[in-house]
Write a structure and sequence with these properties.
eight-stranded mixed sheet
C-alpha cells in the first residue's frame, strides 16, 4: 500500500525542518526530539481521575501515573481491568508525560484503569535496569491497584516500541518467576532483536522516521555488554521456551524497520501454543501511536488496542 498521505506530509515537513536521524544526535538532543511528539497528538481526553505516585524501582522510587476511565467515575463501584503501560523512546527517552494522551485514550476506550510507569533510561542506566524496573512496576500494581478500583487478577501489560520490548520481557519474567498473573500482552510495534535481519530491515532502513542506523544506535545505548544480546530479558526472541505466556496482540506498521522482527516474535509465540494475534497497518510508520493529531489513522491503532483489551478482560473472558 502507498504511504499514508498524512504520514507522507509529516515526513516531508520533518525533512524540511532539518530532521536528523537519531544516531546523529547526542542523547540529550534525542530525548528532546522524542519529547516533541506531544506536538503531534490530539487534545488529551478527560478521564475521571488521575493519580501521580511513585513505585519502588530497582534504583529508587520512580514515577507512576494512574488513569481511571471517565465512565467509571473517580471511585469505580466494581473492580476494573488494569493495563500496565510502558512508554517507548528507544530505551533512552520518553516519559509518562509524552505518553499521557494515548494512555488517557486507552483508559476511556478500553474501560480500564491504565497505569503508566517510568523506568530508568540508558545510557546512564543500561540493561538490566529498565526490565528490572518494569518487573518491579508489575509487582507494585498487583499489590496496590485494588486501592484505586482495579482488579489485580485482571492485568494486561502493554507498551509501544521499546516499551513493547519491556512488556514482552516482563511477561516472560512473570512466568519464569511465578509473578503476577497476566490476562494478556499488547505489543505496539515492539523492538525485539538488535541482530534481526528480515526484508523490512533492508527495505525500510531509510526515510520512515526511525532508520536502521537509528535503531542500532538505540540498542547500543541500551545494552551493556555483548552477552546482553543473548539474554531473553533484553531480547525476548532469545527465550528458549515461549510456552505458557499470556495471549498477545502484536501491532506492526508496513513502513517500518522492525516490522518483520515483531511479526516473527508473534509467530514464535504461536508456535509455542500462545494465542498470538498480529495486525499490520499498511501505509503507516513507527511512532504512529503517538501521532493522533497528525495522522488520523492513529485511531485505528488505538481501536485495535482497546478492542483487544476489552475482549480479553471482559467478565465472559475472565471466567
Amino acid at each position: 500500500m502507498a504511504l499514508d498521505d498524512h504520514v507522507a506530509q509529516l515526513i516531508e515537513t520533518l525533512n524540511s525542518q532539518g530532521f536528523t536521524s537519531f544516531e546523529q544526535l547526542s542523547v540529550e538532543q534525542a530525548r528532546a526530539v522524542i519529547d516533541t511528539f506531544t506536538g503531534l497528538q490530539a487534545p488529551a481526553q478527560d478521564v475521571a481521575r488521575v493519580v501521580n505516585l511513585t513505585y519502588p524501582g530497582g534504583g529508587g522510587d520512580l514515577p507512576v501515573r494512574i488513569y481511571v476511565p471517565a465512565a467509571a467515575g473517580p471511585v469505580p463501584e466494581t473492580p476494573l481491568p488494569v493495563v500496565l503501560y510502558f512508554h517507548g523512546g528507544g530505551f533512552i527517552g520518553g516519559s509518562i508525560d509524552v505518553a499521557d494522551e494515548p494512555c488517557r485514550a486507552v483508559a476511556n476506550g478500553a474501560g480500564a484503569i491504565v497505569v503508566s510507569a517510568e523506568y530508568r533510561l540508558a545510557p546512564e542506566h543500561r540493561f538490566p535496569a529498565a526490565p528490572d524496573d518494569a518487573y518491579a512496576a508489575l509487582n507494585w500494581v498487583a499489590a496496590h491497584i485494588a486501592d484505586f478500583g482495579g482488579d489485580p487478577d485482571n492485568i494486561v501489560i502493554a507498551g509501544d516500541s521499546a516499551g513493547g520490548n519491556l512488556a514482552a520481557v516482563t511477561a516472560l519474567r512473570a512466568r519464569n518467576e511465578a509473578g503476577p498473573s497476566l490476562r494478556g500482552q499488547v505489543l505496539i510495534y515492539p523492538v525485539i532483536d538488535p541482530s534481526a535481519e528480515f526484508p523490512s530491515t533492508r527495505e525500510y532502513a531509510e526515510g520512515y522516521v526511525i532508520t536502521k542506523r537509528g535503531l542500532d544506535w538505540f540498542w547500543m545505548q541500551y545494552l551493556d555488554v555483548p552477552g546482553d544480546a543473548s539474554n531473553p530479558y533484553a531480547v525476548p526472541s532469545r527465550a528458549g521456551d515461549s510456552s505458557g505466556l499470556p495471549p498477545a496482540l502484536v501491532l506492526t506498521n508496513e513502513y517500518e524497520v522492525g516490522r518483520d522482527e515483531a511479526e516473527d516474535y508473534a509467530a514464535r509465540l504461536e508456535a509455542a501454543g500462545v494465542d498470538a494475534t498480529v495486525r499490520r497497518f499498511d501505509g503507516l510508520v513507527h511512532g504512529v501511536f503517538w501521532m493522533s493529531g497528525a495522522v488520523p489513522r492513529s485511531s485505528e491503532v488505538l481501536a485495535a488496542v482497546c478492542d483487544y483489551i476489552g475482549s480479553i478482560t471482559a467478565p465472559s473472558a475472565v471466567q
